[in-house]
Amino acid sequence: MVGLRTNATSGSPGRETEVAIVGAGPAGCLFAAVLAEAGKAVTVLEAGPAWTLGDLISSQIWARRLKWGGAPVLRGGADPVGYAFANGWGFGGTALHHYGGWPRMRPEDFRMRSRFDRGVDWPIEYEILLPYYDRIQEDVGVAGDIGAEGWRPDNTPYPMPPVPATKQAQIIARGFARMGRTVGPTPVAINTVPYKGRRACIYDGWCDAGCPIGALVIPQVTYLPRAQAAGARFFAGMHVARVMTDGRGRATGLVYFDNEGKRHKILADVIVLAGAAVQNPRLLLNSASPTHPDGLGNSRGLVGRYFVHHTIANIYGFFEEDLHNYIGLTVPTLESSDTYEKNRKDGPFGSYIWGIGMAFKPNDLLGLATSRADIFGEDLHRFMRRATKYLGTMGAMCETLPDIDNRVELAAETDRFGMPLARIVNRFSADTSALWDHASAEGLEIMRAAGAAESWAAPMITTHALGGTRMGDDPAESVADSYGRLHDVPNVYVAGGGLFPTIGAAAPTFTLHALALRAAERLVADWSAHRG
To answer: What CA–CA distance (Å, rounded) separates 497 from 319?
Structure first.
């Protein structure tokens, strides 16, 4: 199996390299592959463990080890949000256990200010990212049905046939049909047929625990082994605390601690910050110096600002038919995106997409038991006996708009290396709350139309931490340019979902990959401009 023996490089990272990458998640691994294949000396420092496919076990308890296991992330603001569930830890990052839903963002998502007078425009349009979407999906394998999507202005088909709809999804889809809504296969980064030496999915619903057979697109079977084959060196247990700069304000390297607490430095010509959307701002803010007194890249006070999440409206219903709800994927096998239109006559502003028929496990955040977290004891036992066959679910992923006051900031508390902890400060806008309420009410109506005897909506949850280092053409309004290059520091790049100026209603992993490929290739092409 490709990637089975992927592991950390033995020995020490050394004292210097051409490129130092912080974080071995999807963006960091892609950058490492492109740069190493271009002949650059690449060193990747990752705080978490060096996970391999052989480490992955289909167990909910084991899956928790893949979640964020670093320094605590504090919560603040009027509407505090969690962090650990939707973020990763170790080689592969969040993409090691992501669910594989890979929709593209839509053209209107890139032009929010121009078209809707909301949010901000991206510094690039859909057409700029289009060839990178196409190359990524061919490279790693994406399954879907372009004809069923209907909205795409391009016609590049997916390289694999769509995922089959489960019985649960088909039954719930009856409600959409009865309300005049269309449904189609969810585009997924999961093999529906064998692809490039990787096996096809067996639909056992353990995506959240990783994928030991390699059917799910995770860095362990895509860019991580490619990077290592080209000579990139990956080191686990390395906790980066600061980006060093010289008197001119250019980055010169990194200060990091190993797991034993020993302090080290590594010099580099170029730095790529490929941590999560919380950890990149934390590192930039902690890298203050005489030439960058408010933190690296923070001359306009925007590092950490415009932090944003998707909200999820989960709807549950009991049916008379056995739904075989343990079969499928953690991501829905069907989706309905008729609701992507942002301006609507009968409700609040914003896009949302319905995902239909996710596979259940007994517990944890998306499990059977927690769909009714208000019952205990014998009532819960009776509920579980019924739910294992007859409970169905669907969920709406809802857009939220960027707000400058929603942010990542440094706290007074520190981790074991003396680095300040990150705090997420969050408040939901009236639009955010109204859109979630609208989707929840609609979902209950659809579930009843599908034939559910009982139905209910779960409390709001959030996912996909994004923003905090947003990109743009104007340094007064953004932290980095469209390639992730800091406006203030020409040899530091930011990679990942923190760059997103707005987020639409699409899961971000596909777009994150496309942005990283575009940026990494630009870095190679302009290499001489980044030295010295």
So the answer is: 38
Average pLDDT over residues 221-236: 98
Q: Please state the rounded mean pLDDT for residues 476-489.
A: 98
Q: What is the mean pLDDT of residues 301-328?
A: 97
Q: At what angle do helices 430-449 and 167-178 cross, to 10 degrees?
A: 100
Q: How far apart are CA 356 and CA 286, in angstroms?
A: 42
- Count Cβ atoms within 10 A of the Cβ of residue 443 and give its class: 0-12 exposed, 13-18 middle, 19 or more buried: buried
Greatest pairwise CA separation for the chain in angstroms: 71
Q: What does 261-300 look like in DSSP terms, one character per residue?
A: --EEEEEEEEEEE-S-TTHHHHHHHTT-BTTBTT-TT-TT
372 — pLDDT class (breaks 50, 70, 90): very high
The answer for residues whose C-beta is within 8 angstroms of residue 339's C-beta and 6 or more apart is: 351, 352, 353, 354, 396, 439, 442
Q: Please, are residues 352 and 396 in contact by the beta-carbon 8 Å criterion?
A: yes
Cα gap 489→273, rounded to integer Å? 12
Residue type, 237: G
Query: pLDDT over 70 for what percent of the chain?
Result: 98
For the cut 70, the answer to whether the pLDDT of residue 305 exceeds it is: yes
- Reduce the DSSP state of residue 382 to 3 states and report it: helix
In angstroms, how far is CA 225 from the centroid of its own chain? Answer: 21
Residue 377 zone, left/alpha/beta (φ > 0; ψ -120 to 50; rest): left
Rounded to whole angstroms, how far apart are CA atoms 262 and 267? Answer: 17
pLDDT for the residue 2: 45
The end-to-end CA distance of the chain, in Å, is: 42
Q: Has residue 113 got a pLDDT over 50?
A: yes
**CA 267 – CA 264 distance, rounded (Å):** 10
State pLDDT tens for residues 373-396: 899 999 999 999 999 999 999 999
User: Is the pLDDT assigned to residue 532 strictly greater than 60?
Assistant: no
pLDDT at 6: 60
Asked whether 482 and 372 are in contact (CB, 8 A), the reply is no
For residue 176, with 0-12 CB atoms within 10 Å meaning exposed, 13-18 middle and 19 or more buried, which class applies?
buried
CATH top class, domain 16-530: alpha beta
Q: How far apart are alpha carbons 43 and 37 in whole angstroms?
A: 13
Please report the DSSP string for 322-369 in residue order.
---TTSB-SS-SEEE-GGG-SS-TTS-S--EEEEE-PPP-SSSTTSTG
17-35 pLDDT, tens digit per residue, is 999 999 999 999 999 999 9
What is the layout of strands, in order, in the sheet containing 420-425? 73-76, 420-425, 407-414
Name the residue ranges covered by the structural domains of the chain. 16-530
What is the Cα 437 distance to its own chain's centre? 24
Is the separation of the CB atoms in 337 and 439 below 8 Å?
no
* Residue 227: partners with Cβ closer than 8 Å, 6 or more residues away: 29, 32, 33, 36, 42, 44, 234
Task: For residue 91, count other CB atoms closer than 10 A to its CB.
Answer: 28
